[in-house]
């Protein structure tokens, strides 16, 4: 019998520790251990990796990660009520589950991990995008993580993998696709969670590329993309006029028609424009 089978069902864990879901903490729990094992498998081979899990809650996904053979899991949970439940899992997997109580936005997680590192999380929706942007914009590239396997609201997942030409395409797509491969690997209906959220969810798997697809300075690219999509209905010559007095010339030099809108511009052209603006 594997360790996962010796632990009580999640419903019982939740009842015994009185883990009534709190909306303010984005708590929508996964109770089906077949499903959490399936999500853990989307992250690839975990056996020689440390895994960072944000928001383990009662530990359904944590149990999946450990059962799938993760070398070590660092679980960062804000809600103190969940810690005793997670300690029961740690006891069933001696030395393999490390629990940190605190806010994932404040904790220096990589300091507690050994490479190679994969991040796997059913993210709290209120901080999910902020965490993703931080993972995608580290001070140096390649980042400390090899892959990110993350549950988002479906609409956010679609923005991450979006291609030019539609409403979903924006800053998140450019940031995610510039230095990673991003794919939606699973779709989950509201009923997969307890309590069910209002919207559907999806798991996105991102793999860090060794370097960017097209050269650009990260800070300049970030500025260009933020300005372009902040006023996405405007023509680029207007949306970007604050970036350089001769923006029309620079747009043309980057191969972009100044009357185009941000939504139509492929990643490669945004990088070309960032290089043009970096020339002073
Ligand atoms: N992983 C569990 C599962 O799949 O059933 C719970 C997922 S639930 C969507 C999100 C979890 O993130 C909750 O346990 C919540 O308490 C925790 N959380 C919310 N904000 C957090 C933060 N800033 N830092 C760390 N954990 C957080």
TrEMBL record:
An example Gene Ontology molecular-function term: 16S rRNA (adenine(1518)-N(6)/adenine(1519)-N(6))-dimethyltransferase activity
Keyword tags: Cytoplasm, Methyltransferase, RNA-binding, rRNA processing, S-adenosyl-L-methionine, Transferase
Domain of life per record: Bacteria
GO cellular component terms, semicolon-separated: cytosol
Subcellular location: Cytoplasm
A Pfam family: RrnaAD
Domain Ribosomal RNA adenine methylase transferase N-terminal: 35-210
Protein family according to the UniProt entry: Belongs to the class I-like SAM-binding methyltransferase superfamily. rRNA adenine N(6)-methyltransferase family. RsmA subfamily.
Protein name: Ribosomal RNA small subunit methyltransferase A
Organism in which the protein naturally occurs: Cribrihabitans marinus
